Amino acid sequence: MPLTDTHIRSLKPDVKPRKYFDGGGLFLFVPANGSKLWRMAYRFDGKSKLLSFGEYPTISLKDARERREEAKRMLSKGIDPSDHKRQLRQARAIAERDSFQNIAREWHETRMAEFSEKHQGTVMYRLETYIFPAIGKTHIAKLETRDVIEVVKPLEQRGNYETSRRVLQIISQVFRYAVITGRAKHNVAADLRGALRPRKTVHRAAVLEPEKVGQLLRDIDAYEGYFPLVCALKLAPLVFTRPTELRAAQWKEFDLEAGEWRIPAERMKMRRQHLVPLSRQAMSILRELQKCSGEGKYLFPSIRTEARSISDATMLNALRRMGYQKHEMSVHGFRSIASTLLNELGYNRDWIERQLAHGEQNEVRATYNYAEYLPERRRMMQEWADYLTRLRDTANQKKAM
């Protein structure tokens, strides 16, 4: 007699497991713990087999009967329902394993390890905020260009141009990793090159005329404020590193006997060790600064706590207090000054680029080039410091006239 919902709800567990048949091989299995489990008995290739449909009431009587009919249709076509179910389960497991999200997390753990924690966090934030909600659960090999464009285009349309480019870059890097590891055949994100608006070149404000540079140096010398901050401003044009690399400089990185500053790879934008030859002028500033902060970790500790360095805003605000507006000078502008004037003075471009720590395309070469052109760079850095001294002295003389 076929089962009814009323009958099923009234069933109580017995000491021994019981089976309640509905017909066509379908029955409800009730073990001693009181569960109500759907089963279907059938034969395939002369063998008795059993198929599970789930638990009542999650799987209703109607659902169970529909699954029985579907299993019978498979049998009529020579398909084993149990094998079919197993294959679907395996396909779902593979789809989940090779989803964009899982591969992206694997890529992040494997390929982002050499980057700073801050950069790793930024990349993961973009993955979880912009990418995973849209395509995270999709098998990476099934994604197409239109799926990717639907992730990045809305960002661009909202005016988030840089974010849209960064997100597309991340997706492309994950795809390249998937291709390398055999989970995808093609990087569909690479086909979108040119699909987004081109990046606008951002020019860092800087005074570039020699006479104005001399005045800037004079203004820095005359600036009265927190001594480590004053030293940072005086060193900035002499070493022309990136602002973050300068303000977070640590005493352990300096060899004052050798006249060298070796910035470790983990603090560099390009993740390569960088060597800065120190001029006599830079050494003089450092020796004075050593009397103030030499017992601590940072050359330029925060005025509030020695546990961290001064901020970018601290240096920028000092320039503003000197009277330099946003369009006139930035902290990053010291690099522009050095790059522009050193080239105008006729120094070898390779020496300048190496000292600016710009990216090296050759990965093998980049690992070892921190000391490249070192004798030439030592001479250039000293001559550069002497040149800046002359510019500053000229500005002082004009002021005195």
Automatic annotation (TrEMBL):
<dbReference type="InterPro" id="IPR053876">
    <property type="entry name" value="Phage_int_M"/>
</dbReference>
<dbReference type="InterPro" id="IPR025166">
    <property type="entry name" value="Integrase_DNA_bind_dom"/>
</dbReference>
<feature type="domain" description="Tyr recombinase">
    <location>
        <begin position="203"/>
        <end position="386"/>
    </location>
</feature>
<comment type="similarity">
    <text>Belongs to the 'phage' integrase family.</text>
</comment>
<dbReference type="InterPro" id="IPR011010">
    <property type="entry name" value="DNA_brk_join_enz"/>
</dbReference>
<keyword id="KW-0229">DNA integration</keyword>
<dbReference type="GO" id="GO:0003677">
    <property type="term" value="F:DNA binding"/>
</dbReference>
<feature type="domain" description="Core-binding (CB)">
    <location>
        <begin position="98"/>
        <end position="179"/>
    </location>
</feature>
<protein>
    <submittedName>
        <fullName>Tyrosine-type recombinase/integrase</fullName>
    </submittedName>
</protein>
<keyword id="KW-0233">DNA recombination</keyword>
<dbReference type="GO" id="GO:0006310">
    <property type="term" value="P:DNA recombination"/>
</dbReference>
<dbReference type="Pfam" id="PF13356">
    <property type="entry name" value="Arm-DNA-bind_3"/>
</dbReference>
<dbReference type="Pfam" id="PF00589">
    <property type="entry name" value="Phage_integrase"/>
</dbReference>
<dbReference type="InterPro" id="IPR002104">
    <property type="entry name" value="Integrase_catalytic"/>
</dbReference>
<dbReference type="InterPro" id="IPR010998">
    <property type="entry name" value="Integrase_recombinase_N"/>
</dbReference>
<dbReference type="InterPro" id="IPR044068">
    <property type="entry name" value="CB"/>
</dbReference>
<dbReference type="InterPro" id="IPR050808">
    <property type="entry name" value="Phage_Integrase"/>
</dbReference>
<dbReference type="InterPro" id="IPR038488">
    <property type="entry name" value="Integrase_DNA-bd_sf"/>
</dbReference>
<dbReference type="GO" id="GO:0015074">
    <property type="term" value="P:DNA integration"/>
</dbReference>
<keyword id="KW-0238">DNA-binding</keyword>
<dbReference type="Pfam" id="PF22022">
    <property type="entry name" value="Phage_int_M"/>
</dbReference>
<dbReference type="InterPro" id="IPR013762">
    <property type="entry name" value="Integrase-like_cat_sf"/>
</dbReference>
